[in-house]
Structure formats: C-alpha cells, structure tokens
Sequence to fold (110 residues):
Amino acid sequence: MEYQEFNELTQSELITIEGIGKTTAKRIAAMRPFRSSDDLFKVNGLGKRTLNRLGIMKSTKPRKRWYNIEGKDYPQSAVAKDERSGIITFFWRIPREYRIYLELESSTNK
Fold:
C-alpha cells in the first residue's frame, strides 16, 4: 500500500484496514492530502507498527550538521567565515556585512 492511497480511501474503507478504527479514520480524513509517507506518521493514533505492516516506511532525512568549535558542538547555522580575515567562527562574532555562510567539509558530522 502507498501513502497516496490514504488520500483516496473513504472512512469506511479505512476502517477495514487492520489497526485503524473509526476515530483514526476520521483523523486521517481530516489531515488529507498527504504529500509524503512522513505525513502519515503525524496522524495521532496511526502507529509505526501499523504503517510498517502496510509497507509504509518513514523516509530518512539528512541529519543537521553539527561542528565542534572550542570543545562544544554547534549547529551549521552558527558557523560563518569572515571575508576580511578568512577566519571561520561563530556568525555573531562577525559583523553582518562581512558574513559568508559556509558548508564546512572537514568538520565533525553527528
């Protein structure tokens, strides 16, 4: 079963699926349209086990990059390069007009 089918099934058809009751069927109908399989995992009462049994898996999104600076971990959004000096540091230490945001290759990923 594909997530697109949940957009087309009626509430009475949803109830016939094992693991989906009347209340969950109403919640599914209320949250339509589903644009990805991840949207189904947001429906209250529709569990991972039920969806996995139907062949719907949660997609794996890339994790946010974190960088170790001065012994602490910080998100990628906190790192910038000063265009005058070339120093890579926290963006709040660099005047706004001199910030260049980077994707650092040699940093630690978590």
